[in-house]
Here is the input.
Amino acid sequence: MELLVLGANSDMAKAIAYAFAKQGFNLSLAARNTELLQPLKSDLEIKHEVNVALHHFDALDYDSHASFYANVTTPDVVVCAFGYLGEQAIALNNFEEASLIMDTNYKGAVSILNVVANDFESRKQGTIIGISSVAGERGRQSNYIYGSAKAAFSTYLDGMRNRLFSAGAHVVTVKPGFVRTKMLGDMDTPAPLTASPQQVANAIYKAYRSKKNTLYVNSKWRLIMWIIRNIPEFMFKKKNL
Amino acid sequence: MPRKQHITNWGKYPVVESLVTELEHANDITSFITQQTQLIPRGNGRCYGDASLGEHVFSTLQHNKILQFDAAHGILQCQAGTLLSEILEVVVAKGFFLSVTPGTKFITVGGAIAADIHGKNHHKNGNFSEFVLAFDLLMADGTVRTCSKTENEELFWLTCGGMGLTGIVLNATLQLQPIETAYIQQSSIKTRNLEELIELFETSDQWNNSVAWIDCLSKGNEKGRAIFTGGNFATREALGNEKGDPLSIRNKSNKNVPGLFPGFLLNTLSVKAFNLLYYNKQQKHISESFVDYNAFFYPLDAIHNWNNIYGKAGFTQYQFVLPRAESKAGLEKIIDKIADSGKGSFLTVLKLLGKSNPNAVMSFPMEGYTLALDFKIQKGVFELLNDLDRVVLEHGGRLYLAKDARMQPHMMDAYPKLQYFKERIKALNGSTFQSVQSNRLKLT
Here is the structure.
């Protein structure tokens, strides 16, 4: 079995690589900087005795995506793990930052996953795992640029799942909640709601095996997001969230 | 991203507020180091005291990838944050084991080099550094020096046992030892007193690994009664087919000590009861068995956080070594003092160390007996330990920095190359690398 990880330099992507390598998957790891991935490659190969290939991939270089995909070993599973949190405060005044958030989290994902989906549809197999975010479930003043990009991505994944169903391919949408990663930096998050990248990765492997549609790594998030989605707007808009 | 946090090592004493930086990539570590004015590298926090604590800590835990493994020659290269347990998971199945290992496999390779750790086979294999073929050392100015016994050898020997004060080890190449099976053929022998035990150690050359658990609370005729354990890696022939695949061991589930184990349960009475139970568990004078490498080398790792047993105040481990000729007299005095104090040590381990390496600068081992004892942090303990210090010094012994959290600077005079070490680390890196311990002991 072959796994392709898009955006392999993130902490979560690395944990996913280990979780699948442990199950015997060969890996294609794709990232902007493949030099940084060399130690990871050797570690995975030595620990799990699988083949690991490194590929240059830039989510924002849309034109390169088709040829990139043509060059990797045909995957059984594709994880779309790249993302950009950005700085909401900057993005509000600087459209470049806002664009970068939208382009990375949404346009880049659509560009590459369109290619993957066409392949899976014609091969009548395959699983696409998209790492989206609970932030996409309702816009909040503190991060609605990122949130809206992830909302678009989640909606895209929903549609793709619907489309690929008849071909026998599957799409898993992952909404991890807080994860202790570089992306979160030194932000303080409530411990009971914060997962480790390894926990997320193991949950993702399970979700892949059981063909889950939407994965909340910690089931508390499902409840929290249900509540957040159902607060009436006249109240929600007054909250400082 | 640095995080301000309260950190503490295995003894849970002391607790220090620290700015901890964790970086994965060597080039990030290099650019980070050049911006630092003071720092101590830290691995998995399994030294007992304050050796890897400081105001600014660099954690190697994310710099933890295995880079190469030559399964034909048993040579492994890995980044410094790699745990020994991760190495074992790879190499045992291929017929190799660490050439030297301490009593826990949850330490990093960087930590093993910094403390130049020793194990149950010290009398045969010596220190960890004997099997370090090379490492890359990051200096305060951002340069990386490859060190081995033939290249930058001075820096190599300053760093092995140098407690992180010479720079940050980025990666290391280790020579592993070949094994036929993952099992140890072990003999456990009950001895009635210290004399019997020492006699046994003196004639224990047939075992590549040896150690004794000793009861420090018994007095009189039974003073120093112990259980001696000697073992060698079993050959395939000796092991037979009993265990299935000889290089694989069945994983047992680990036990946990409850997080808030009340410290008052660990009074003299309970320690005595435990010691009695342990001692009497073994009915016969000698018992022989095959045990897997975890049970033999890492019995305490099976209880994941056994350090909770001493309660919130924590504990300190006191480990000293006495020159061989002085060992018996010194040990008797020290065991007497401990028994009199009633401040029982839960785990007391005695071992005869082999010859010290003349190249080593700050490595702890010297030929003689080493005893390791735990003391719960409580009223009177530091006074008792100061008292024991005097006996150790009197008999020409010294204390192990990887365990220490409390000794006074004068105890360092027992390290003959101390002045040279202090001068060289200053010349190499200025005062960039410093820890709570190195400041307390006036090494930096």
